[in-house]
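thread: overnight batch results

M.L. [08:02]
morning all. the overnight job finished for the chain we discussed friday. pasting input first so we're all looking at the same thing
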Amino acid sequence: MTAEAFPRAFTGLADAAALEALAAMGPPVVVQTLGAAGARAFVAGQHLEVPAFAVPVVDTTGAGDTFHGAFLL
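M.L. [08:03]
and the structure it wrote out:
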């Protein structure tokens, strides 16, 4: 699971190609969080994009940690 800017910064590639390059390094699932835009993933040779839920935001503290925990569950 990576933050939005990491795949491009690490691989020098954009979006889908960056996720594929990260997956080629070994992890079976690569997920890129996109904040209010949702998340994208590369798993089992497939690209997936999931929009974020529209919710009233009071405080974003812990939002990433909560997402990561829920994803792992």
